[in-house]
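Figure S7 source data.
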Amino acid sequence: MLKHLITTLLALVALVAWAGPASAHGRSAEADVRFAQTIAGMELTIVVRASVRVPAPLQVDVVAHTPGRGGRVDLTILAVAGGPSSTGTVTIEEGRPGMYPAVLAVDRVGPHELEVRAGEERSVLPFDVLVPRTPLWEVVAYAAFACAAVALIGALAGAVLSRRTAAAGFAGAVVVAMVVAFTAGVLSPWFAPTAPEGAPPGPPPDAMLGRPNAQAMIEVLPDKPRPGSEFRLRMELFDGSTGRPVDDLAEHHAALLHVVVTSQNGSYFRHVHPIRTAPGTYEVRLRAQEEGRHRVYAEFERADAGGQQVTGEFTVGGPARASDGVPAIASAALGDAPVTEPARPVAGRPARVTLDTGVNGLQPWLGMAGHLIVRSQDGGYLGHVHEAGSMVAGSQRVPDESVAGYEPRLGFTFSFPRPGQYLAWIQYAKDYKIVTVPYTIEVGDEP
Ligand SMILES: [Cu+2]
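Tokens for the predicted copper (II) ion complex:
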């Protein structure tokens, strides 16, 4: 009995000492998954809530930022490995931004697909159902406590039966077990985090070199949309050497893909999140407004690789027109106009751009309090920075769309690469609605 106890304790000590490099790759089981989607004329964020066990109900919240004419959104969750599917529906009310919850179900961990249907459109979004696993140090600590309890009983029994040697041995085992348990607890911060159940395997050793950038083919259908008409912007991502679709995009600022479309003079500006219509293929429906050349900028990140930006171009109804002016401050702006410090920023030096939105309790959009998108006059350069903001009431690890807690003043630091005029747009969310404030900045040369 005593021998067994000591053997168990030694094994636990070995386990603590090992604390091997467990796979720490990927997202944690406690994090929600977010997919911004521009679908059926609506700008949505679909939030798949974290689950703590399976099988279990799975909450999926559809946040309607721009509900447009609203309508039905059908959700279906399917495990890639097979098994029953689970469905849910939310009905977005016309012109009513907000959070529309649905409860679906999952019966296993691992790779899943969430199908989103709205209007004529269908998007299939891959995600992993993860369930937290008990960390190794906790297993060790609990096992050691159990050993200590058994040894304590042995020591007491030895004392009652006047078996001194045995009692002393058991008492020693209690001490060793407690030391193991406390050591595990004290060392817990240094233990490699335990990968949650259902997490994909970490990258193979050769992946340390990084995956190659994806190649992008950007086109519009029809290839020359008319002003006022709807068109589809399609983006195909593929591997340059094999030609196979690149379909391993990671959630990056609450979306798989961020797309900005601007007309030459910047009066047309869309920040949208295309739906995934096939592996490696993303589409978004837009309505053309004005004739001329338009630029497309797409930002995404392959899993286990860096982020990248790709650009494309298309023309609306006829030949491109020369730049004819700059956007005015939108009537949508609620607070003050943006202020730049210094008033005339110097190229290559950080400038401060602030906007007092006048909104008490800004909400996060795409995980941030505010977004600043900057384009050079000719469209050759597009930059994007964030205001992480501070929540008025405490800070949340993952800011939720439903929490209206940011300070009204948004501040960004931005270094304009060259002198000249820039078009800029600040975006933030209020009452779930996205507000876009366009303005222009004149950047000077070295003083
Ligand atoms: Cu975006």
